[in-house]
Amino acid sequence: MISRDRMLEEFLNLIKIDSISKKEGKIGKYLIDKLKKLGLAVKTDDAHKKVGGEIGNIIGYLKGTDPGKPTIIFNAHMDTVTPGEGIKAVVEDDIVRSVSDTILASDDKSGITAILEVLRCLKENNFSYGNIEVVFTICEEIGLKGAKSFDPGLVKGKFGFSLDSTNPDKIVVKAPAANTITFKVEGRSAHAGMAPEQGINAIYVASKAISKMRLGRIDDETTANLGIINGGIARNIVPNFVEIKGEARSHNLEKLETQTKHMEECFKSTIGNFKVKVDNKEYRASYKVDVQREYNPIKLSDDSLPVKLAMESGKALGRKMETIAIGGGSDANIFGEKGIQMVVLGTGMNKPHTKEEYLVISDMVKAAELLLKIVELNK
Ligand SMILES: [Zn+2]
Strands, E, within 239-285: which ranges? Predict the structure, then answer.
């Protein structure tokens, strides 16, 4: 059945193939070849055309031995963050870590490995299973872009499992919604030494608004952050422009709205108060705000099909499963928006997006065992 050695070998192969977001061409070809050899029909979409990437999302179709059972979707993303090129790994007992100055890419190649292993097991053993659809996405790490351009009409499945979290005994059933928020503040430039009274310092004005803002952890469901600030061109010029980029997240859409409004309000109630008069003409600071919904929340009940299946499967394997909420969005949020109920499962990846990232091999094996049991118990 599930083979630890085979999984480890596959994982080590996968992390040798560089696949930073938009550069998934090579790994895409590798996976298309694998899926075909495992007996799946394979399609790609044109998601890459919208993001300037090399290849689209990959969709694999495995015909079940009992197509009367509901179709299950398995998802993992092919892209990685940086620094993720030329990864060299070392295996120490149950741990794989990177020895070069890079991430390990267990996010999300451990997820891909688990899915491939399950497909291999299904090919080897002829127990009864329904249709399975595999969706390997691109550009998850740069704004869930592959999933966003995915056409749900390409799959028949109505629920699935995204392999893109840490602990294989935890089932992610709640993930927040997020807004990206951009403020553009306009002041008035002037020579900082000769005529500062003729200027409105956009950086100073913005700082007054920001100082009123609630940021960080707002409550147990809500967070907010300003992460990028850009403005000014020289030390000796009063800056006439600054741009601030941030975000707010919440498991509760009303709270997300309240926090976003609060952040806007801090600018609204501050910026207009700054003005100067030059040659009898009045100039006022002004601002523009742009709010975009980055993704919507996941909120799956305990009796939704994927949660029930994952719970039962874990129990059948003698494991103590737990449902949890996480603070980040993933492809599963986007699939949810498109009418596909998707829970996120852990793969053994740890400390993703850092150079300290490592994989617990036995946890990756547990992820594959859970998936296989899910296929078995699905009816
Ligand atoms: Zn990931």
Answer: 241-250, 275-278, 281-284
Q: Which residues contact 379 (CB under 8 A, 6 or more apart)?
A: 69, 70
- Rounded Cα distance, 214 and 72, in Å: 42
Distance 42 CA to ligand 1 centre (A): 22
Residue 140 bears catalytic tag: yes
Q: Print pLDDT tens along the chain (379 aa).
A: 899 999 999 999 999 999 999 999 999 999 999 999 999 999 999 999 999 999 999 999 999 999 899 999 999 999 999 999 999 999 999 999 999 899 999 999 999 999 999 999 999 987 899 999 999 999 999 999 999 999 999 999 999 999 999 999 999 999 999 999 999 999 999 999 999 999 999 999 999 999 999 999 999 999 999 999 999 999 999 999 999 999 999 999 999 999 999 999 999 999 999 999 999 999 999 999 999 999 999 999 999 999 999 999 999 999 999 999 999 999 999 999 999 999 999 999 999 999 999 999 999 999 999 999 999 999 9
Ion ligand 1 — residues with CB < 5 Å? 107-108, 164
Domain 178-294 in the same topology as domain 4-175+297-377: no
Domain 4-175+297-377 belongs in CATH node 2.60.120.260: no
Q: Where are the domains of the chain?
A: 4-175+297-377, 178-294
Cβ–Cβ contacts within 10 Å for residue 3, how many? 15
CATH T-level assignment (fold) for domain 178-294:
Alpha-Beta Plaits (3.30.70)
**What is the C-alpha to C-alpha distance for residues 209 and 266, in angstroms, rounded to an integer?**
5
Set 24, 45, 133, 140: catalytic member: 140
| Residue 79 annotated to the active site | yes
The Cα–Cα gap between 339 and 357 comes to 33
CA of 289 to the centre of ligand 1 (A): 30
